Amino acid sequence: MLPRGASSMPPPPNPAAYFPPPRVTLPSGLEILRTYSGAVIFLEILFGTIVWILVAATRVPLPLLQGWVMFVAVTAWLLSIVFLCVFLFGYANRIAVNWNQTDFLFHGATFVFYFGAFLLQAATTSLHHFPRSLNSTAHERILADHEYNISIAASIFAFATAVCYGCSTALALRRWRL
Questions:
Q1: What local confidence, expressed as pLDDT, does residue 21 receive?
Q2: How far is CA 128 from CA 121, 122, 145, 163, in A?
Q3: Based on the structure, what is the number of domains in the chain?
Q4: Measured between alpha carbons, how far is residue 78 from residues 95, 136, 138, 172, 176 in Å?
Q5: How many CB atoms lie within 10 A of CB 104?
Q6: What pLDDT does 178 receive?
Q7: Residue 21 domain flag
Q8: Does any domain span residue 135?
Q9: pLDDT at position 161, please?
Q10: pLDDT tens-digit series, residues 71-88
Q11: Is residue 8 part of a domain?
Q12: Range of the domain at 81
C-alpha cells in the first residue's frame, strides 16, 4: 500500500533538453596556434590569401576556369578564418558539436575542392603559348608573359594550399579516430 499522496507513476522527465558535451581535442584561445593543426590552419589562410590575390592580379583570360579557382580560394579562406576563430574565441567549448568529426569533414572536403582548383589553375597556366583569335587576322597569346609568371606563382601557391588542407585532413582524421 502506498503512503498518502504518493503515486505509482514515476516523476516526469526534466523538460530541459539534454545536449551532449562537445568533443574537442584542440585547445581554445591562443593555445590553438601552438599546435600543428593551428599552425597548418594559419598557413592555409596565408597561402589562400596569396592565391586569390595572384589570380585576381591577372586579366582572368579564362573566366570559367579562374572563376572557379577564385570561388574556391575565397570561400575556403573565409571558412578557415571562421573555423580558426571558433577555437581562438572558445566557441568550440560552448557549441555541442563533435568538433573532431567536423574538422575532418571540413578539411577533407576543402582539400578535394582546392586540389581541383589547383588543377584548373595549372591548366590555365599551361595554355600560355596558345593563340587567341581577336578577329580573322589578329592573334594574341591567351596569357601575356607577365600574367604567365603570375599564373605560375598562383599555381604553386594553390598546390601549397591544397597540401596544407591535406595535412589538416590527416591530422583531423588522427584526432577523430583516437
A1: 61
A2: 12, 11, 8, 25
A3: 1
A4: 20, 44, 41, 19, 23
A5: 21
A6: 76
A7: no
A8: no
A9: 98
A10: 999 999 999 999 999 999
A11: no
A12: 30-130+142-177
**Residue 31 in grid coordinates:** 593555445
pLDDT score, position 147: 86
CA dist 17 to 23, 32, 92, 95, Å? 18, 31, 19, 14
**Secondary structure, 3-state, the chain:** CCCCCCCCCCCCCCCCCCCCCCECCCCCHHHHHHCHHHHHHHHHHHHHHHHHHHHHHCCCCCHHHHHHHHHHHHHHHHHHHHHHHHHHCCHHHCCCCEHHHHHHHHHHHHHHHHHHHHHHHHHHHHCCCCEEECCCCCEEECCCHHHHHHHHHHHHHHHHHHHHHHHHHHHHHHHHHC
129 versus 75: the higher-pLDDT residue is 75
The x, y and z cell numbers of residue 77, run together, are: 579562406
Residue 116, in any domain of the structure? yes
Instruction: Fill in the amino acid letter for 10.
Output: P
